[in-house]
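Notes from the 1:1 (GR / supervisor)

We went over the backlog. Supervisor wanted to see one worked example end to end before approving the batch request, so GR pasted a single chain during the call. The sequence is below; no edits were made to it. Supervisor asked that the structure be written out right there so they could see what the output format looks like.
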Amino acid sequence: MARSTSRTSTAASTRLLPRGIVAAIDATKYLGVRAGRRSDHRFIAIWPVVIDGRVFGRSWTIEPDGWFRVFLDDPLGAIQVGSRVIRVRARRVRSARILDAIERAYATKYPTPGARMFVRGFRTARRRAATVEFLRR
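Structure output shown during the call:
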């Protein structure tokens, strides 16, 4: 008998952020991120993208004490959408298919001449490797 994969997809979908939050993130250009469960970091603004109801962010600077590196050590943190603060878990993205889709989403969401340099810069290998998905915890 073939094994059903619905259990895995159901478990994964229960960790997705609520649809209303995802819609708000998709409608805005900036998302506040605070990395680390016990972080004293302030919320910083990043450029989010949404693909199939999933929320992603990519680090530009990749500093040793920046949000991406903190999430690698402690994947729990929070995002700020308007006045709401949502506790999240960050999961590193490694799938080439998803990383490519994220790049297309950045190009679509941030099409202005001023944003083009950053959209192109997000395509570099080191920044592709600094991509996370934000999940409900």
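Supervisor's comment: Residues 6 and 45 are 35 Å apart (CA to CA).
Batch request approved.
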